Structure formats: structure tokens, C-alpha cells
Amino acid sequence: MPTFGYTSYVDDDNILLINQIAGSPATPESEGTAQSITACMLGWSAGEEVKCALYDSDRNLVAETEELTTGGNGWKTFNFDSPPSITISEYTIVAFGDDMTSIEMDTSAGSEHYLRLETSTYPTFEDPISSWDTNASNVRVSIYCTYTESGGGGTTLGFQGDGRLNFSGGSKELQFMTV
User: Fold this and answer.
1) Tell me: the pLDDT tens digits for 86-123?
2) Which domains does the chain have, with CATH numbers?
């Protein structure tokens, strides 16, 4: 399944999620239905509550995931109870916690990447977020969304102009004949 967001883990820095909504913006390459959010957690003790969500470019809450209390370090996946439809537009993928849990981030990600933070009291996602408390550049949070693409019912054909015909599931070489 395709993803959008930051799928890399760089042991660079982290940010506490205690009563903070933290994440980074990302754009899917196609329309579809969001299935889950995966975040790289650090210092997450069993019993501490964490959940994730998607915000649209107008800072409206699109959907939130299940709440997990499993704890542990590394990549953790949070499923959507009601998977939302997504379009090819910017979303901010966020995590939110109630205690000393952290999420990993890369502080050398380049100026086109941002850390977005909003102070809020767990467990309620602010909706809408009036403005992000922090919108710091050069930071990318290790969090991404997995989705299924829409329109998978038929075969899509497209000519590339180099002798290949693309269709859902791969590409085949075409043979040309001069008449």
C-alpha cells in the first residue's frame, strides 16, 4: 500500500508528546482511503496513552486513530476506526500523548520540511487548530500515513511515448510495425 509522510528513522532528536499535538505536513500522490498512521516512538511506557490524526491544510481535523497504550520504542501503527477519504492535497500527520512519550524527528531535513506543534489537553484533538504554535523549518517528524488508492476497479492504460504501455499492475513492451 502507498504511504505519505516521513518513513525514515534518524536517531537525531525527539519531541515530548505530553499534551502536545506534533507532526509534519505531507501530500499523498493519489486519492484514496487512509488506513493507518505509523509513528516512530521513543520512551513509550506501557499504559501511557497515544493516538494519531490527520489534519487538512485548513487545520481541520480529518480523522483520528485508535488510542494505544502498548508502549515500546520504534515504529508503532495506529489504525483508523473510520478510515477517511483523502485527496491529493497537503495534510499534517500528527501524534498526541498524555505522558512522557516522545516521537522521533530529523532536524536536518531541509528547509522545505516542517515540525508543527499545538498545545492541547489530551485526549481531545483541537478542531480546528486556529494556528500551529510552532511551524519550525528544517525538521521532519518520523510519522507517515498508509492508504489504499481509489479507483482500483478497472484497468488503466496509458501510452508513455517510448514504446511502453502502462496499465495497472505493470508495463509491457509494445511491438511497432512499419507498414
Assistant:
1) 999 999 999 999 988 899 988 876 766 778 888 899 99
2) 3-153 (2.60.120)
Q: Read off φ and ψ for residue 106, nearest 5 degrees.
A: -110, 115
Q: Enter the DSSP assignment of 68.
A: B
Tally DSSP H helices, then E strands, for the chain.
0, 17
What is the spatial distance between Cα 167 and Cα 156, in angstroms, rounded to a whole number? 5
C-beta separation of 47 from 165 below 8 A: no
The string over 126-150, giving b where at least 16 C-beta atoms fall within 10 Å of a residue's C-beta and e elsewhere, is eeebeebeeeeeebbbbbbbbbeee
Q: What is the pTM of this model?
A: 0.82
Determine how many CB atoms are found less than 10 A away from the CB of residue 9: 14
> What span, in angstroms and rounded, lies between the C-alpha atoms of 55 and 60?
5
CA distances from 57 to 9, 74, 80, 115, 120 (A): 25, 28, 19, 14, 19
pLDDT at residue 163, as a whole number? 54
Q: How confident is the model at residue 177 (pLDDT cuts 50, 70, 90)?
A: very low
β-bridge mates for residue 68, sequence order: 50
